[in-house]
Predict the 3D structure of the following.
Amino acid sequence: MAWVSLIVAGFFEMFWATTMKLSEGFSKLNYSLLTLVGMVASFYFLAKALHSLPMSLAYPVWTGIGAVGSIFIGVLLFKDRLSLATIFFVILLITGIIGIKFTSGH
């Protein structure tokens, strides 16, 4: 259940990053409020995961899910362009997240 909470927390991390972009510097109230809701939900589920998982595992996985997911959302929704070097490092990030999970023993 801790892993489910951690993954949900990561998805809320992507959610609030996206709504923060859509808030245009917090000038749009609806997106600004959604950003705050997403932040609270992300921290809540991260806190739930931390009951069972070590911080040295949960925190990097949480930030990694948010980072990689936000990159994909940026490319798909906001037409961000990635260089080949950036794509390489995103792959390294994904590899690192998977490696942390499989070597943690949890």
Summary: The mean pLDDT is 95. Residues 2-103 form one domain.
